Amino acid sequence: MDTTSTRKNTEEGMIMAETLRRLRSWLGLVVAAVLLPVAGVSAAAADPGATIVGGTRASTAQYPWVVYLATTSGYQYCGGTLVAPNKVLTAAHCTEDDVASSVLVVAGRDDKNSSAGTAARVTRIWIHPSFSSVTRGYDVSVLTLDRNLTQATLPVATAADANLYTAGTSTTILGWGTTRAGGQPSRYLLRASVPVTGDQTCSAGYGSQYKPQHMVCAGLPQGGVDTCQGDSGGPLVAGGKLIGVTSFGEGCASARYPGVYARVSSYETEIRQQLAS
Ligand code: ARG
Hints:
Blueprint: H1 12-39, H2 43-46, E1 56-57, E2 66-71, E3 76-84, E4 87-90, H3 92-95, E5 103-107, E6 118-127, E7 141-145, E8 170-175, E9 190-197, H4 199-206, E10 215-218, E11 235-238, E12 241-248, E13 259-263, H5 268-276
Antiparallel strand pairs: 1-9, 2-3, 2-5, 3-4, 4-7, 5-6, 6-7, 8-9, 8-11, 9-10, 10-13, 11-12, 12-13
Arginine (ARG) binds next to strand 12.
Protein name: Secreted trypsin-like serine protease
Domain Peptidase S1: 52-276
Pfam family, one: Trypsin
């Protein structure tokens, strides 16, 4: 199980998981190289390559509320969503070790190597009090910014939006994370579309680690399109609302293992309270 963020690979178990994952993907490549020509499938079709995994370039002009979290030295490590002019919803596992003064929220910057947009400071970090690890749920965190940003905000899904969580609902995922498991982070904002996955499908892959009350999955049965390391905390969007926060997955874009997202509507009360504070 890869439940790490890009900067939190220090625990032994995580290193083991990372090593196993690398080994597995290396074996996967070898197997694919041998089998694909025989099957008549081009390597290009099997590995959509450049781009989240299986995505395309996107602009913050079109998705003004997508932001990224960076260290004060500018290293991007997670995503987030502007849900009020001075509030960002992100993942608890992104901020659990952070000190507010050392986090930057960057808005309006498609290209990490540019200085477009705004880098705001964080004055307060709220982490769901029940959060302990991603597979237990509660992977939500709200950051308070030192200023009001001018970018448009995205409404947060509530209990009234149950329909948006139906299997098959089309969603948008966004981020600056890696373009394959174990790969390099993207320089540019990427986006992709994936359908919401039914509870049974998600449980079939993740067993008891998938908790339907706290999480929602999205991805294709055959894999190929997914969020990946560094996309955590970023948005899963459906029907013009934020329905999920990128949380964890087994590798990235693997068949039978869709991406797992914090189910935003289950935290309606806590989030609303944070937005009002
Ligand atoms: N935990 C990762 C992060 O911190 C996100 C992983 C998402 N994985 C996936 N297969 N959808 O950036």
